[in-house]
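[SOLVED] Need 3D model of a two-part complex

Original post:
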Amino acid sequence: GNSVTQMEGPVTLSEEAFLTINCTYTATGYPSLFWYVQYPGEGLQLLLKATKADDKGSNKGFEATYRKETTSFHLEKGSVQVSDSAVYFCALSDRSNYKLTFGKGTLLTVNP
Amino acid sequence: DAMVIQNPRYQVTQFGKPVTLSCSQTLNHNVMYWYQQKSSQAPKLLFHYYDKDFNNEADTPDNFQSRRPNTSFCFLDIRSPGLGDAAMYLCATSRFGGDWGTGELFFGEGSRLTVL
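Solution:
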């Protein structure tokens, strides 16, 4: 079956630091890959996505590249802000079913 | 311009008193999901509707039921809430079919349930 493994954290950074949250996956076929973000007390929001190998998803300064050879989709941001403090979930979806498989989530705290 | 709307945002109930949470969508998506999320853990899928077809996850307790009267609305009924059912309940939608799309799910803001 499908699975997603992501760095669990928590991760604590200072403002303007570089962020990497690792995510690797196991899936049959050619899944779509996602990063969702959840701010305190809110629902999940799509941060970025990639639907095929070598695609790069980007949004709000965050980037992730779909690497089929390493089955990875690591999230990066060059300079984090306090407002980026949230829980980040890596997820995949494939055409064999229409459910998302989530990683366990990574809590990011950015200090001023 | 919220596309997936959940009500209420906050629900307080007493132990054993039935609760209904609602979800509506303006996306005309054919799949609707209910997730349970505790303490920033990953959301746990309870069930989903593919069009009118109901699909229950194997480990979803019988205490949880759902209704989808039309494409736009879906309800989560908790028949006898226990303390362990206190959680955030998330509704989501997606489009699945011949033109599969990306498989992206669109989430509502969630309904936080407190059980006293």
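Edit: Chain B has no helices and eleven strands.
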